[in-house]
Design a protein that fits this description.
With 415 residues, this protein is an alpha+beta fold. The chain has 2 domains: 260 residues, no CATH class; 122 residues, Conserved hypothetical protein from pyrococcus furiosus pfu- 392566-001, domain 2 (2-Layer Sandwich), CATH 3.30.1760. Helices cover 31% and strands 24% of the residues. It is built from 13 helices and 21 strands. The strands form 5 sheets. Strands 1, 4, 5, 6, 8, 9, 10, 11 and 12 form a 9-stranded mixed beta sheet that branches. The chain has a 6-stranded antiparallel beta sheet with strand order 15-17-16-19-14-18, sandwiched between helices. Strands 2-3 form a two-stranded antiparallel ribbon. Helix 4 packs parallel to helix 6. It starts with a strand and ends with a strand. The model has no long low-confidence stretch (mean pLDDT 96).
Length: 415
Amino acid sequence: MAIVKPFKGLRPPKDLVERVESRPYDVLNSEEARSEAGDNEMSLYHIIRPEINFPEGTDEHDPKVYTAAADQFKKFQEKGWLVQDEKEHYYIYAQTMNGKTQYGLVVGAYVEDYLNGVIKKHELTRADKEEDRMKHVRVNDANIEPVFFAYPDNEVLLQLINRYAQTEPVYDFIAPIDGFGHKLWVISDENDINTITAEFRNMPSLYIADGHHRSAAAALVGAEKAKNNPDHKGDEEYNYFMAVCFPASQLTILDYNRVVKDLNGLTSQQFLDALSRNFEVVKKGTDNYKPAKLHEFSLYLDGEWYALNAKPGTFDDNDPIGVLDVSISSKLILDEILGIKDLRKDKRIDFVGGLRGLDELKRRVDSGEMKMALALYPVTMKQIMDIADSGNIMPPKATWFEPKLRSGLVIHKLS
């Protein structure tokens, strides 16, 4: 069962939300954060990308940068740019992309659920990235940014959310950088709060969709605070961390594509001949060609698009990892033909999120930067949940969720 609780969210006043809110810290670099913040001293980037408060080139992992985050967080509260709710609430956060809206519940997720596997992950995390986020949580004593969970569809919660969706939200804005819509409602009714808590308690698992490093960091700091507190009782706020939980069926997973610098010494024809051993290779011409189904890939090479359909026997339907298109392409194309064996470290390969479209793949090849591009059919949420349930880990660079959560709408203080 999944344990969640409401919390006293720290939020911007309605008239300031569009000045405070930001993209997540990990989807842009320091230079981009500095540019987007501009002269807006209320931008959350001053807290989540605190290196922008220092001269360009300052190491974002310098101890003084983390200290600056805490100083900025304190400043935001003192100036009234962030104000804490007086009572514990759940919140509904809606995102609209390309006419489709998904509704998430903002909750306090239970640290112990992460540690004991009720909250399930599908990606490996890196210790250095975990430590970076742990330092940020420690110095602020807060979860400044939420993590992104999925939960099995639930009719009771769906009806509750739909009821609130008919009312006026507290926040309602369109993010200028991508044109996606964002709304937030506050759930203060005790009966609704109790219903949400009870419905989550009936769920065997929650699933991390996006934010594996933030989840790990938040849970590990919570466990750390419990261990270091001689009077620990178990009901302290640090036993929970902030998550936005969406029904699995509402989530949009985009393709996560690959571009490669060279053909490992092969000519284009030799590469196509090598592909034909495991794929049906069909030339599609110069117009963009997107994979239409699982186990079909699109190749862009020398100004032409090709459809690559994996032949029967090249994958095992009973292997939850091996059946994934990211696994098939990694094994049969990137490894066997191109000699790319470590997707995390090999400098010959790069990755392009599906929101950028096939035009971005074409641009990077036509520019001469890359030799070829490979477009994949998106992973499904069911595949992710099946893999997490089986205790397996997805291959790297397998999922790209959109839209990303905006940061700064709600913050969770740990004490």
